[in-house]
Amino acid sequence: MIRLTWRQFQASAVGLFGALAVLVALLGATGAGLADEYDTGLTACTTAGGDCQVFIENFADDHSATFLGVMAAMLLLPALIGLFWGAPLIARELESGTLRLVWNQSITRGRWFAVKLTLTGLATVVAAGALAWVVNWWSTPVDKSMAKDFARMDPLMFGTRGIVVVGYAAFAFALGVVVGMLARKTLAAMAITLAVFVGLQIAMPILVRPHLAPAISTTVAVTEDNAADTQLSNGTTLLISARPADKGAWILADYTVDPSGKRVESITLPASATQPGGACAPGKGRGSCLELVADMGYRQVLEYQPSGRYWGFQWGETGIYLGLALGLAGFCSWWVRRRLS
Amino acid sequence: MTAVLRARALGKQYRRRWALQNCNLNIPAGRVVGLVGPNGAGKSTLLNLASGMLTPTAGTIEVCGGRPAADAGQLTKVGFVAQDAPVYTGLSVADHLAFGRRLNPAWNDDIARDRITALGLDPKQKAGKLSGGQRAQLALTLGIAKQPELLILDEPVAALDPLARREFMQNLMESVAEQEMSVILSSHLVSDVERTCDYLVVLVDSRVQVAGNMDDLLATHYRLIGPRRDLDTLPAELHVISASHTDKQSTLLVRTEAPVHDPSWTVSSLTLEDLVLAYMHESANTAVRPKLEVLR
Amino acid sequence: MIEFHLNGRSGLSPYQQLVQQVRHALRLGLLDEGDRLPTVKEVSKQLAINPNTVLKAYRELEYDGLVAARQGVGTFVTATLTDGSLAAHAPLRKDLRRWLAKARLAGLDEESIEALFMNTFRNNAGEDVA
Predict the structure, then answer these.
(1) Phi-psi category of A235—alpha, beta or left, where left has phi over 0 and alpha has psi -120 to 50?
(2) Which residue has the higher pLDDT, A93 or A341?
(3) Phi then psi for A169, rounded to 5 degrees?
(4) What is the rounded average pLDDT of the residues A157-163?
(5) Is there a single domain that holds both residue C63 and residue C37?
(6) pLDDT, tens digit, for every residue of A216-237?
(7) Which of C43, C61, C77 is the C-terminal boundary of a domain?
(8) Helix (H), strand (E) counts: chain B
(9) Which residues, including other chains, have CB under 8 Å from residue A20's CB and lie 6 or more apart?
(10) pLDDT top residue among A75 and C27
(11) Is the pair C, B in contact (3+ CB pairs within 8 Å)?
């Protein structure tokens, strides 16, 4: 049964593992060089004194293309596994009728399914795990340089670093298997699996991840230190956004409240403030304007997940996806043994 | 004699429709059983139930003394060649034999290899490139080399040309002669059934119409032609299967254990085709027929 | 060795045809005492018929004393039918010729003669059995 499973799996396994091998080889070859480049550049600019910002920004710009490419690969992998390893697992045998051949050899349905699922599932975990490990190692310097725009708690970064991709892959695989079993046609199963998986991946950071732990909520007076963007429009309307001290935090909510605590979209400045000589006059700089706003009683409410929770979230989310994958696998096993025909 | 297939009130329902109803069978071992009937009568359903591909909605079925597909031991006893002889298109002929060898404890590799050679199949050929007849023969080889007690074949030759069909049947009969194997095969080609089968089950409209040894059935069914008669006037032991009347003449197809002595009838025996057609025709005309079963 | 064939239209069941063909071969001298009949397996394969049918035919021939089955070796012819060869029945043949002449004189055509003969022959056979 193992040999048969391998022979059936061979083509799509070789395809995906082949592509993966090429990617891993490329990353492996360039990773050390990248780290070197970053380290030497950083030491050079610090010993030369002055700000390393320029170097860091240049470094980020230079490698943004590969950075995005790697991100795309990490996003694609679970979907490809679900589509090409998961969906055809049972659907193809249903479609071609070979189920009627293999189920009449002296092997029970339960054992047949267990072997197929375990073998392909193992391949899934190995593939995802290997890629995640290599990407995490390779992207360390680039991530550091991009930290300002791409904090690791941000949705796009969170989903492509750490260990969650193993959970995503396992889930996508199990999803593909179940959909294939129910849809009975490979192509339809692939389409449905893709739709459901993408839907879930979009929903996760919006609906579930923010609540994995209670968000931290602070109300602060906005100062030069913690202000993010300030925008003066129509002469007297001020829009403010702020940042928590934790630079890598995942900001969930950021809004202004008036002295009574009610949420407002913008602050209406008194006319005197925007006239020449006033606190918010053009050319005056932000600091005094913000001081005025604070004195007026306006505060900023920030809800965020601190960056320190990164690994807790990684494990938590991976656990959720693995749990879902196991649940789907269990359902599938039951259905195959009791209901499938 | 042990029964190779025993069904009691067996039924299978799909959504609204009953594909098989109230099926009672007691098929003895050592026979080649022909399952005949029109398309959609329930033949595939019955065979899929027997091989464990489907589970019954009602009643029970026992094959070689056990519940179909209950465990690996049961699965070794029964071989199944499904309709259209499915094979793994990406695997070669030799791969299929290897897979049969590994998954079946009772596999006889010599039989398998001898057969493949005798058939002239190239072991390295991918199964997807084989002709319809060759695929059917490969599927048959897989079923035979497994050395089952019962081999079930679902319309094995329906899609084959006459030569491929003849070769397939030759191979099957050779295996029946070699191994002690019971066979159940479904077909809508009565001529094949006549040559190869010694037990008959007629399935029409999801019900078993008649079942029994071929010789007994042919010996107890007659065509009676005589002057026009009212069916009520006939003796009780004459079971009328179908009747047609003109103003002067009655033609009856009957089943009876005793010989027909009434001299007003011209008695002739039926061919198998006549017999099957009579039951098929009759079922189309009446709503519910009581099943006729020969119990031996 | 004898080779069998089946005629789908002959009105005789397959096993009856096999028996008939063996008897015919014996009568014509194509099979001699000691000749081996094809094995059950060979016949089933060649004709694509049920082995039980072949077994039944061979058993009937054995019952009639014409063949004998030897375990593990095969089925062999033990007697011939040429003793009752057609030549030995010249008187019967002459009677038959006379009857045929009479039938033609009576105005019967070929088909009617055959029908009359077959009908009488079958009824006669039936009476014997009953």
Answers:
(1) left
(2) A93
(3) -65, -45
(4) 90
(5) yes
(6) 888 888 888 788 888 877 777 8
(7) C77
(8) 9, 14
(9) A77, A127, A130, A131
(10) A75
(11) yes
β-strand partners of B28: B3
AA letter at B176: V
Whether C130 is in a domain gets the answer no
Tokens representing C71 are 């375990």
- In words, the CATH class of domain B3-213 is alpha beta
Domain-embedded: residue C8: no
Distance CA A268, CA A250 (A): 28
Query: How many other CB atoms sit within 10 Å of the CB of residue A85?
Result: 24
DSSP count for chain A of H helices, then E strands: 13, 7
Task: Judge C/A contact: 3 or more CB pairs < 8 A.
Answer: no
Give me the number of domains chain C comprises: 2
- Dump pLDDT digits (tens) for A31-67: 888 888 888 888 888 887 777 888 888 888 888 888 8
Span B98-147, pLDDT tens digits: 999 999 998 999 999 999 998 889 999 999 899 888 999 999 999 999 99
Residues ≥6 apart with Cβ < 8 Å to B208 = B23, B24, B25, B201, B202, B291, B293
Contact state of C45 with B177 under an 8 Å Cβ cutoff: yes
Among residues A211, A224, A280, the alpha carbon closest in space to that of A250 is found at: A211
| For C55, nearest residue in chain B (alpha carbons) | B177
CB B81 within 8 A of CB B139: yes
The residue among C43, C58, C77 that closes a domain is C77
Judge whether A108 is closer than 8 Å to chain B, CB to CB. yes
User: Is there a single domain that holds both residue C47 and residue C102?
Assistant: no
- Name which residue leads in pLDDT, A172 or A251: A172
Distance, CA of A160 to CA of A67 (rounded, Å): 11
Can you give the residue range of the structural domain that contains C98? 84-124
Nearest CA in chain C to B176: C51
Tell me the chain A residues in contact with residue B142 when contact means C-beta distances shorter than 8 Å: 101
CB contact under 8 A, B173 and C52: no
Q: C89 and C68 in one domain? A: no
C24 and C56 housed in the same domain = yes
What mean pLDDT is predicted for residues A133-157? Answer: 86
Average pLDDT, chain B: 87
Edge-first strand order for the sheet with B58-63 is: B17-28, B3-14, B58-63
Per-residue pLDDT at B283: 67
According to the model, what pLDDT value does residue C129 have? 53
Q: What is the pLDDT of residue A286?
A: 77
Six token digits for residue C112: 């009617």
Cβ of B174 within 8 Å of Cβ of C8? The answer is no
Please state the φ and ψ torsions of residue A132, each to the nearest 5 degrees. -60, -45
B53 touches chain A (CB under 8 A): yes
Reported as type and span, the H/E element at residue B17 is: strand B17-28
Specify whether C117 is located in the same domain as C65. Answer: no
CA C79/CA C49 separation, integer angstroms: 26
Cβ distance of A101 and B52 shorter than 8 Å: no
Interchain pair C51, B177: CB under 8 A: yes
**C45 and C63, same structural domain?**
yes
Residues of chain B with pLDDT below 50 are: 287-291, 293-296
Residues of B in contact with A99 (CB under 8 A): 86
pLDDT at A185: 92
Do residues C32 and C72 both lie within one domain? yes
Domain membership flag for residue C36: yes
Which chain B residue's Cα is nearest to C42? B174
Give the containing element (helix H, strand E) for A243: none
A167, A78 contact by CB (below 8 A): no
For residue B73 the two structure tokens come to 């031991």
Interface of C with B (CB under 8 A): 6, 8, 13-14, 40-41, 44-53
Residue C1 lies in a domain: no
Separation of first and last alpha carbons in chain A: 20
Judgement on whether residues C62 and C21 belong to the same structural domain of the protein: yes
The single-letter DSSP state of residue A265 is S
